[in-house]
Specification:
The complex is a heterodimer of chains A (about 120) and B (about 110). Chain A is built from no helices and 11 strands. Chain A is mostly beta strands and about 120 residues long. In chain A, the strands form 2 sheets. In chain A, strands 2, 4, 5, 6, 9, 10 and 11 form a 7-stranded mixed β-sheet that branches. In chain B, the strands form 2 sheets. In chain B, strands 1, 3, 4, 7, 8 and 9 form a 6-stranded mixed β-sheet that branches. A 3-stranded antiparallel β-sheet of chain B has the order 2-6-5, with no helix packed on it. Chain B has about 110 residues and is an all-beta fold. Chain B has no helices and 9 strands. Classes of the chains: A mainly beta (about 120), B mainly beta (about 110). Chains A and B meet through strand 4, strand 5, strand 9 and strand 10 of A and strand 3, strand 7 and strand 8 of B.
């Protein structure tokens, strides 16, 4: 049973960089699948951010591409997200997911608040 | 890439059926059979209820069913129960550098 767990600071100051880690258990991320990040702003819908495969590449949401970096470390069974120059609009619950064309497994989510 | 369109709300009495639509375009819903439906309770992560248009993961009651016609996918919940009251989101694979897109979400109320 694959399990995903997000970790990172719950509070980030405006203009700084949001950095999140997803630790995967129960499945080796270097074997298959894309692995991604999805966020949900308070009271709003879901937004795909980025996805990565250990050998097939990376896709980014075009509207956020200039501020996003996704990376993967198969030796630690982790993948990561960086979002630069954050504003209050980036306040959201961030989920890491396994992509089987669309997400089929989700982490519990971590709330990140952007505030000074 | 725009979000898929869902009705904001839907409701039904216990035992009745409710159907939620998810309208996309020929570039997403109309091009792929990789359409999923998610159930989300407040403060919780989304849970897959339907994948690949009409397949149910193990453990999901057969009261939940999915279908697709053209650019519109649908989720039907039959025999509504109080525990079905939640938000529901659809998602479709897009491809071409865009992994997937989500629906706007529908709040289902059991009257």
């Amino acid at each position: 049973q694959v399990q995903l767990q997000e970790s990172g600071p719950g509070l980030v100051k405006p203009s700084e960089t949001l950095s999140l880690t997803c630790t995967v258990s129960g499945y080796y991320i270097g074997r298959a699948y894309f692995w991604g990040w999805v966020r949900q702003s308070p009271g709003k819908g879901l937004e795909w951010l980025a996805s990565i495969h250990h050998s097939r590449g990376i896709d980014y949401n075009a509207s956020l591409r200039s501020r996003l970096t996704i990376s993967i470390d198969t030796s630690k069974n982790q993948f990561f997200l960086n979002l630069t120059s954050v504003t209050a609009a980036d306040t959201a619950v961030y989920y890491c997911v396994r992509d089987d064309w669309v997400p089929d497994n989700w982490g519990q989510g971590t709330l990140v608040t952007v505030s000074s | 890439q725009s979000a898929l369109t869902q009705p904001p709300s839907a409701s039904g009495s216990p035992g009745q059926s409710v159907t939620i639509s998810c309208t996309g375009t020929s570039s997403d819903v109309g091009s792929h059979n990789y359409v999923s439906w998610y159930q989300q309770y407040p403060g919780k992560a989304p849970k897959v209820m339907i994948y690949e248009v009409n397949k149910r993961p193990s453990g999901v009651p057969d009261r939940f069913s999915g279908s697709k016609s053209g650019n519109t996918a649908s989720l039907t919940v039959s025999g509504l129960q109080a525990e079905d009251e939640a938000d529901y989101y659809c998602s479709s694979y897009v491809g071409g550098g865009i992994e997937y897109v989500f629906g706007t979400g529908t709040k289902v109320t059991v009257l």
